[in-house]
Each structure stands twice: as C-alpha cells, then as structure tokens.
UniProtKB/TrEMBL annotation:
It comes from the Eukaryota. GO terms for biological process: autophagy. It comes from Paramecium pentaurelia. The keyword Oxidoreductase does not apply. Belongs to the ATG8 family. A lipid is attached at residue 122 (Phosphatidylserine amidated glycine). It holds the Pfam family ATG8. This is Autophagy-related protein. Keywords: Autophagy, Lipoprotein.
Length: 122
C-alpha cells in the first residue's frame, strides 16, 4: 500500500492529530503519546502503528526496548537508532520521556521520532 510511505502528518490533518493527542492525554495522563516512524533509508519493517504511549517517567532505553520487540524478526543483526524528527538529532536514551516531550513536542502535542538501523557484524 502506497499510503504507508507517507508520514503520519501527511495521513492525518493537524486537527485530527491534535484531537488524537487530547484523547490520549485524557485517557492516559501519565503517559507520553509519541509517533515513531521509519527513516526513509531504514531497512527494517514499518511498524503496524506509529502511535506509542510510554510512561512519562521511563527513559529512552525503555522506548528502544519496545521498538526492538516490535521489530524483533528483522533487528537481530543490527543496531537501532532513534532520532528526533524535528531536528534529526539522535534521541539520548538516558533522557526521561517527559523531558524529551517538553523540549521536542510538535504543535499538535505529539513527540515525533524516527528509527533507523545500522547492520552489525557477528
């Protein structure tokens, strides 16, 4: 399906995204709603759903663990890296999710991240 190559923002209007964010915030006030998408050069599979909820007190290492679990079949021989979509800088895994969201969230409220991989030897 070709629509999978479009970004979350391309598939959803600003109003739709803002409404979804508000629903997540109302239902899960201690969780950070984020959108994580595959980088265009990434060879790993697309996630079934780009929306992820993670506890605000968790660190980026937990997000990496969640991502590795979702991509398990294709990520055994590679390292996965996470980047802020808005700045294309690497997401520091020691950061708390609440801090990351406060500093990098989009106007719609979501924290946008991309994942990429690098093949490893061994």
């Amino acid at each position: 399906m070709q629509f999978q190559n479009l970004s979350y923002k391309d598939n959803n209007s600003f109003e739709e995204r803002k409404e979804k964010f508000q629903i997540y915030q109302q239902k899960h006030p201690t969780k950070i709603p984020l959108i994580i998408e595959r980088h265009p050069k990434c060879t790993l599979k697309l996630l079934d759903r780009p929306e992820v909820l993670i506890d605000e007190t968790q660190k980026g290492t937990k997000l990496l663990q969640i991502l590795q679990e979702k991509l398990q079949e294709n990520s055994k021989n590679c390292s996965i890296f996470i980047f802020y979509t808005n700045t294309n800088t690497q997401f520091p895994l020691e950061s708390q999710m609440k801090e990351a969201a406060q500093n990098h969230k989009d106007e719609d409220g979501f924290l946008y991240l991309t994942y990429n991989n690098q093949e490893t030897l061994g």
